[in-house]
């Protein structure tokens, strides 16, 4: 192998400008960035160098998806996707067809009842029509609601006398009997029951991480669970990621959701020993639910449901886990979609900052709706907003009805957050949304027409998935000398392209540690 590898394109692009046309790599690290002629002239005398020419192409930092669920993403790609079902009959047919392919739990993912002709959630009786002799669990696309059939409720012991767990809700019929719809922590009642298990293969996880590289993704902020949780039927996610680690081609920064300090310690220890591509990044906690399930914690009621303000889930246990992570030098990532949840999360962040927590280790996941005062408060803290521009594309038809016109201007307010001094980074929340950073960058700029005043510039949109994301994940500055040589070759410059042109970006090659990621047999990256 030669001493150096030289990669030459039309331009090497960072969010703040073009920095040359070539990247020099040695031992997996960036050795130089700049003009090809200057780099060649500065090579040590007698050094050998392989030159890789990508004429007319643009070299970008590797893309980072700051919030992705790798095990659930794998379950979606290897299970039944329901994103396109348009009626109850179509749902039942899809589930019956899936049941015919195997045994055990029949699981479905990414259901959106608003796109179905009936415009309502299915119930256990609807699922029973499709499959009655085996457990069925269908997840709504936001991950905060699931529907199970009668067999699953029987296995899990969910009946008329079952009480709502803290932070969760069991929907019931007029007679008070559970109807199969489980919200938030109530999902755990079924997902954790023996007999409702469908573990994901580590080999499949590694292959699905390879699929992400086809979109130029070189690092992810991976949300993984250890212990109980709404996706516990998939197996212990931390253990699955550890088992997949030797074959994972990209970098995984794991944020652990654990139900106790001891569970967190065990999972963190395993992840730290998993290899150089996998690290323990911190803990993940939940402040509330989602807009779609009416479980986001709101200061004022939902515009389309005046009796509902959602569910605030943050408690002292969450604060304890956050302190443990900060004390270990890691980050804390807390889910907050409603403005009431965001306010409570910022209260905790202020306490953690007062105890010495570094600002970039305080992450609010989603940061979907904040008051103007809380945006300023978050900026003063210097905390991180881990946002999902793809939500704009999927919620266009209903989000204003849910939050109302007054709050819409503060919903997914990316530009205001940046103006307030918040470090804003981008992710997909996959399998909730497609892990497509190009579509997300385009939506950050054109916002699907929603509140254009909150649109980002092309440079800001690119930073969400490169320089800003790297900082939030604790990585060295991308394409800087001494940093890992993680970069992507694409067919256009996203800064010089319109949003629609960015959507059409073609990834030519993805490199992690200076090595080409082999995606020849990865399969498609999305359903």
Question: Could you explain the architecture of this structure?
Answer:
With 527 residues, the protein is an alpha/beta fold. The chain has three domains: 1-61 and 476-527, Urease, subunit C, domain 1; 79-191, Diaminopimelate Epimerase, Chain A, domain 1, CATH 3.10.310; 287-475, Alpha-Beta Barrel (TIM Barrel), CATH 3.20.20. Helices cover 31% and strands 25% of the residues. Strands 1, 2, 3, 4, 5, 20, 21 and 22 form an eight-stranded mixed β-sheet that branches. It has an eight-stranded parallel β-sheet with strand order 6-13-14-15-16-17-18-19. Strands 7-8-9-10-12-11 form a six-stranded mixed β-sheet, sandwiched between helices. Helix 2 packs across helix 7 (202-213) and helix 7 crosses helix 8. The protein is globular, with a radius of gyration of 23 Å. It starts with a strand and ends in an 11-residue tail after the last strand. The mean pLDDT is 96.
Reported CATH architecture of the largest domain = Alpha-Beta Barrel
Bulk shape: globular
The mean pLDDT is: 96
Q: How large is the radius of gyration?
A: 23 Å
Per CATH, the superfamily of the largest domain is Metal-dependent hydrolases
Largest sheet: 8 strands, mixed
CATH C-level label of the largest domain: Alpha Beta
The percent of residues in helical segments reads: 25-40%
Number of contiguous helices:
19
Poorly predicted sequence stretches spanning 5 or more consecutive residues: none
CATH topology-level fold name of the largest domain:
TIM Barrel
Q: What is the CA–CA distance across the termini?
A: 39 Å
